[in-house]
Design a protein that fits this description.
By secondary structure, this protein is of the alpha/beta class. Helix content is about 45%, strand content about 20%. The chain is elongated. Residues about 1-50 have low confidence and may be disordered.
Length: about 350
């Protein structure tokens, strides 16, 4: 796909998603009152002005919601940028959208209005909002499962072809399906639990269903529109399933304690797509390090700002290391035997 064509497709796709999940256009503002009223914000200031030949930079960070995985990715990103550019040469305008896609739009439109040198988008809705807001400012994303799905790119080559690059948080879904069978071998019915507003969660659900088919397992999707729907949806899923699978999903990550309060008394084990969800409500996960993918995204940002690399030409990067993890207390309560190649983690 040629760059111009990809850009039009990306923007159209992102705007369509915006409309579907209630993302509102915000326009530019001369103050940050609009975003600060709906989002928490912190700033790390440094000496100097914005990048205008003086070697200083301002980076806007839009994080969808506060939870362990995304927090670790943001921390890793900042560490790498400060190492690569020098802490005195960069200012981070760090904003948290509190789980609201419309607030992501407010935040990134303010970054564009301010003329930030680069936008870091942490999670898919933040990326989609950033792409809708600017075609010129470089965007480096992280904690995005599948960029082709997020940006509606049909002829995926490993690069976006536009002003976007970044790192993905996808662990091999076939291996996750195998883990489910390994830890809960007697399960016949699998409930797949995720938020319908998160396109990458749907991608993971549909992909893992193919592997469950091959295993001869019956499955059903249980989706919520937002955190308000989590409790009744989980109750239904637990009543109808032998085991639940939760992909990397920000809504479920922020609601993991609630999910556990329903699933644990019901005796329903949960295989999670990432460590934070697993600690909150799961028995096992095939884990990546969100700090590491955030750090890699920070190194990519340095290459763009310092070395002049074009994000359109940069391959999306993936986690290098994967670890099979389990929560010992929950496995013990459920009588689950865990193979020796798993690493124990503590429940939260």
């Amino acid at each position: 796909m040629k760059k111009k064509k990809v850009l039009s497709v990306v923007l159209a796709g992102a705007l369509t998603v915006s409309s579907a999940i209630g993302m509102m256009a915000c326009g530019n503002s001369n103050s940050k009152a609009a975003s600060n009223s709906a989002a928490s914000s912190t700033s790390t200031s440094a000496a100097g002005s914005k990048a205008a030949g003086d070697g200083t930079y301002t980076i806007g960070i839009c994080q969808l919601v506060q939870h362990d995985a995304l927090d670790a990715a943001t921390a890793g990103f900042k560490e790498a940028v400060e190492k690569g550019l020098g802490a005195e040469s960069v200012t981070f305008d760090e904003q948290n959208a509190a789980g609201d896609s419309a607030t992501c739009a407010t935040i990134v439109n303010q970054f564009v209005s301010d003329g930030d040198d680069l936008i870091m988008a942490n999670a898919t809705p933040a990326l989609q909002a950033a792409v809708s807001a600017t075609a010129e400012i470089p965007i480096v994303a992280t904690s995005v499962t599948d960029y082709a799905t997020a940006l509606d790119i049909s002829d995926w080559t490993g690069k976006t072809g536009v002003n976007v690059t970044g790192t993905a948080d996808l662990a091999p879904l076939e291996d996750q399906a195998n883990m489910l069978k390994e830890l809960v071998p007697d399960a016949k019915t699998v409930g797949i639990l995720y938020c319908s507003a998160e396109a990458n969660s749907k991608y993971q659900a549909e992909t893992i269903e193919g592997y469950l088919d091959k295993m001869g397992l019956t499955y059903k999707e249980y989706t919520c529109a937002d955190t308000n729907d989590v409790s009744p949806v989980v109750q239904t899923a637990c009543a109808e399933s032998d085991v639940l699978y939760i992909p990397t999903d920000n809504t479920m990550a922020s609601s993991a304690e609630l999910v556990n309060n329903i699933a644990e008394p019901a005796g329903i084990p949960i295989i999670a797509g990432e460590e934070g969800i697993c600690k909150g409500c799961g028995i096992g996960t095939l884990s990546i390090s969100y700090h590491d993918i955030g750090y890699k995204a920070g190194e990519m940002a340095v290459k763009i700002l310092k070395d002049g690399e074009n994000p359109a030409d940069m391959d999306i990067e993936f986690a290098a290391d994967l670890t099979k993890e389990y929560v010992a207390d929950r496995c013990d309560k459920l009588g689950i035997k865990v193979p020796s190649d798993y690493t124990a983690i503590e429940a939260e």
